[in-house]
Design brief:
The structure holds two protein chains of two kinds. By secondary structure, chain A is α/β, with parallel strands linked by helices. Chain A has helices at residues 17-35, 49-62, 79-92, 102-108, 110-118, 165-193, 203-207, 229-239, 243-247, 261-266, 270-281, 286-293, 297-313, 315-318, 328-331; strands spanning 41-45, 67-71, 95-98, 130-134, 148-152, 158-162, 196-197. Chain A is 49% helix and 9% strand. The two termini of chain A are 37 Å apart. The chains are: A alpha/beta, B mainly alpha.
Chain lengths: 334, 99
């Protein structure tokens, strides 16, 4: 642990954006053209900062004609997601397509199954209702990270109910169709174009398991997975990502009520979590981080414990299919 | 109290301890520190306790001091039962005074 209280400031996450961009460009060329032996990259565009930066850096690395953007709205997507994704594609000059995945999700029973699961705790939930999943504020107290559903009736009445295990797992399993169908569509275009699929997680999402296995967690390469969220914004600004995207608060864009990523998963402001994750990764004492993030050392310690807990709880998401014995002829060529 | 400990311990073993794990955890061992339960495990335990002992559990009671070991859960359940009995006693007393 470092001993001086002045060495840790919120500037620790500042990057030399031109240098980082140059390194990434080189790495992406080596990975996509060299290791993966594909002609270019397919990126799912959500209108958010991560997919925008991923597409922008791929376009610089491979050339705009070798990057293909796929926009995949569904019934619960906010309108500006598509507008912002289109704006980015125009700025980058990349080719895109819009795949409305709502009919596919409908056919799979995604919405019906989700609503059935919600009805286990809110029996009157149905047509015209909206909902989102939220966590308690875990920094303010040491509660367990148990999810609640916030639902709004057609008349505007709000309800907040703690989810049972069965209801929670049911809602998550149904909504995970969204990320998995999107990835299926990305691979369709990647196969068609002989391209690789670019994953878009930042370090927080990757390390904390904020992704769906075989959904948005699936990809051939993940060029910004080592960058903290704050650094992704800095890179985005350097790469000329439109201001509207840089200013947009991060959202999961998965539930019918507007939901921030903090409410769904981290329960801590992302900037604070970013600094805590950096501090923890670099052995900085909670007392030092506390000064920069404006929390008490006890609360930073709580965030450290939460990061650890999430790291262990989501270990399964990172595991590849487990084999009983290694397959030597395959291992030999990797 | 001893019976509650046994029942909770049995539920934890049946639901969260896999064959290859060490079943020798003590009733004071922290579920979190031993990695036995994550928040989904706690949620499952909360539902077991609600159903088994007929007590409602508020969000602000979902704290490690109530749920992080077999003994803590047993003490929490016992305290809630004692409280419920005291409340019933007071109600009976009030009813008697009113009649």
């Amino acid at each position: 642990m470092k001993s001086t209280l002045s060495s840790f400031t919120s500037n620790v996450l500042d990057i030399d954006a031109p240098a980082v961009a140059a390194e990434l460009e080189q790495a992406i060329r080596e990975i996509v053209l060299g290791r993966l032996r594909r002609k270019g990259a397919v990126v799912g565009l959500s209108g958010g900062i991560d997919s925008s930066v991923t597409a922008a850096i791929c376009a610089r690395a491979l050339g705009k004609e070798r990057v293909f953007g796929v926009m995949m709205p569904e019934s619960d997507s906010s309108d500006d997601s598509l507008d912002l994704a289109r704006l980015l594609a125009d700025v980058l000059g990349i080719k895109t397509t819009v795949e409305n995945i709502a009919p596919t999700l409908e056919a799979l029973g995604c919405y019906q199954r989700r609503d059935d699961a919600i009805r286990k705790v809110i029996p009157q939930y149905g047509k015209g209702w909206k909902s989102k999943i939220v966590l308690p504020n875990l920094v303010e107290n040491s509660q367990y990270a148990l999810f609640s559903i916030v639902a709004q009736s057609p008349a505007g009445e709000m309800k907040r109910v703690r989810l049972s295990a069965e209801a929670y797992l049911g809602v998550v399993a149904a909504t995970n169709f969204k990320q998995r169908i999107r990835k299926t569509m990305e691979y369709y275009h990647a196969d068609r174009l002989y391209c690789a699929v670019a994953g878009t997680p930042n370090r927080l999402e990757y390390a904390q398991g904020f992704f769906v296995k075989n959904g948005d967690g699936s990809a051939d390469f993940k060029p910004i997975a080592h960058l903290y969220k704050t650094q992704v914004y800095q890179l985005g600004r350097y790469l000329g990502v439109p201001e509207e995207i840089l200013r947009r608060p991060p959202t999961t864009d998965t539930y019918s009520l507007e939901q921030s990523q903090e409410e769904f998963y981290f329960a801590v402001p992302l900037q604070t979590l970013d600094l805590c994750l950096y501090g923890k990764n670099n052995g900085v004492a909670p007392e030092e981080v506390a000064v920069s993030v404006g929390l008490s050392p006890e609360k930073v310690q709580r965030v450290y414990a939460m990061i650890d807990s999430k790291l262990h709880a989501t270990r399964y998401l990172h595991l590849p299919p487990q084999l009983v014995e290694p397959i030597e002829e395959v291992s030999a060529i990797h | 109290m001893h019976q509650i400990e046994q029942e909770v311990r049995q539920f934890v073993i049946e639901n969260f301890v896999f064959e290859s794990d060490n079943r020798g955890f003590s009733n004071d061992d922290s579920f979190f520190d031993t990695g036995l339960l994550d928040s989904m495990g706690v949620l499952t335990l909360v539902e077991f306790v609600k159903e088994k002992y007929g007590i409602s559990i508020e969000d602000d009671e979902l704290l490690p001091e109530n749920w992080d070991s077999v003994n803590r859960i047993a003490a929490f359940v016992q305290a809630r039962r004692t409280q419920a009995m005291a409340d019933q006693g007071s109600l009976a007393e009030i009813a008697q005074n009113l009649s």
